[in-house]
């Protein structure tokens, strides 16, 4: 079931100076997010991803197009309906946005206090949430006494206080070190799996998407340029911007200087083998090569696992009699996708 739907959404801001054109932050974006899904929106600065987030929680209204939550067009909501909507959407931020003057418990309690919940209910809910995020012993601490990861856990607990159906994460791990990032991502996975909350994550870090998301949307210059399952995007990116993001975490195909070094160090023909689901097993391809009496050496590459699904590339140096090498490569090419990186005999 679709929970969030953007249909032909454009958001333009007034021109920064007289005579200049309006600034189009989001340009004709159509996007559907299913209930219970974790969707990652990735893009460089200025891609429009933060504006999409602000459109979903109605902090911005589209210049054109519609934004629907659970089948209702929120661009038509009045103030009362918007307040109810926002209680159904939690938000976590890159810089945590905690109140320094409030304790951990006080920060988590804040949205419940604003909603006018009874004190006993607030105390019980705060206790429950601090246990869930692993901060039961920090209720009376202040933000300045916490690590970055602990602050973000408080932010997550606060975002969950009103039992939202949707959680929006705005660069939620960008200020954290790698180990703490993994801990926070694991907590967000629990939020999704155990509480059934739909999560929309925006980030410029492909590793966050690989670890957390079910599906990824790539934005550039306000437009969606590519979207699909995390496996499909990582294993076969179609757009140059997507390929740049993927190469930041997966460097299994040599190019440029790396390829030049490999050519200098290894004689024979250099080929790159695309290994993914649906292709022959690696051992079968190697056996086909060896059957022609050639020498095969793995000189670059790697195999990646995305939630039990495997893909990757292996770059091979194939040496021996020129005719035998040609036959071996032809046989392997019939079994799997093979790209010639070097044509020297």
UniProtKB/TrEMBL annotation:
Record keywords: Amino-acid transport, ATP-binding, Cell membrane, Membrane, Nucleotide-binding, Translocase, Transport
Record keyword ATP-binding present: yes
GO biological process: amino acid transport
Entry annotated with the keyword Cell membrane: yes
Pfam families: ABC_tran, NIL
Species per Swiss-Prot/TrEMBL record: Microbacterium dextranolyticum
General function of this protein: Part of the ABC transporter FtsEX involved in cellular division. Has ATPase activity.
Family from the record: Belongs to the ABC transporter superfamily.
Gene Ontology CC: plasma membrane
Location of the ABC transporter domain: 4-246
Gene of this entry: metN
Superkingdom of this protein's organism: Bacteria
Protein name as it appears in the record: Methionine import ATP-binding protein MetN
GO molecular function, one term: ATP hydrolysis activity
Subunit description: Homodimer. Forms a membrane-associated complex with FtsX.
């Amino acid at each position: 079931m679709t929970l969030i739907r953007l249909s032909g959404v454009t958001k333009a801001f007034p021109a920064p100076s007289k005579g200049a054109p309006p600034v189009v932050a989001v340009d004709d974006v159509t996007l559907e997010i299913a209930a219970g899904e974790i969707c990652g929106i990735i893009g460089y600065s200025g891609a429009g991803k933060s504006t999409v987030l602000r459109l979903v929680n109605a902090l911005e209204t589209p210049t054109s197009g519609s934004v629907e939550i659970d089948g209702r067009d929120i661009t038509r909501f009045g103030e009362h309906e918007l307040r109810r909507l926002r209680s159904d959407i939690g938000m976590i931020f890159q810089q945590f946005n905690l109140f320094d003057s409030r304790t951990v418990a006080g920060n988590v309690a804040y949205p419940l206090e604003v909603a006018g919940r009874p004190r006993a209910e607030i105390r019980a809910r705060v206790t429950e949430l601090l246990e869930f995020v692993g901060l039961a012993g920090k209720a009376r601490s202040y933000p300045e006494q916490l690590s970055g990861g602990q602050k973000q856990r408080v932010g997550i607990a606060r975002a969950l206080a009103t039992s939202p159906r949707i959680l929006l994460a705005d660069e939620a791990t960008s200020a954290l070190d790698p180990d703490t990032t993994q801990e926070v991502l694991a907590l967000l996975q629990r939020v999704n799996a155990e509480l059934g909350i739909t999560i929309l994550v925006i980030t410029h870090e492909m590793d966050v998407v690989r670890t957390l998301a079910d599906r990824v949307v790539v934005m550039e210059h306000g437009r969606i340029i590519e979207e699909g399952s995390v496996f499909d995007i990582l294993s076969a990116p179609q757009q140059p911007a997507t390929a740049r993001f993927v190469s930041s975490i997966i460097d299994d195909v040599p190019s440029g200087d790396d390829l030049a070094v490999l050519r200098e160090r290894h004689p024979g023909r250099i080929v790159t083998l695309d290994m993914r689901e649906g292709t022959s097993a690696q051992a079968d391809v190697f056996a086909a090569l060896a059957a022609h009496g050639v020498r095969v050496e793995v000189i670059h590459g790697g195999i990646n696992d995305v939630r039990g699904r495997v893909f990757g590339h292996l770059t091979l140096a194939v040496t021996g009699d020129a005719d035998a090498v040609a036959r071996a490569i032809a046989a392997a090419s019939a079994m799997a996708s093979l790209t010639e990186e070097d044509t020297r005999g």
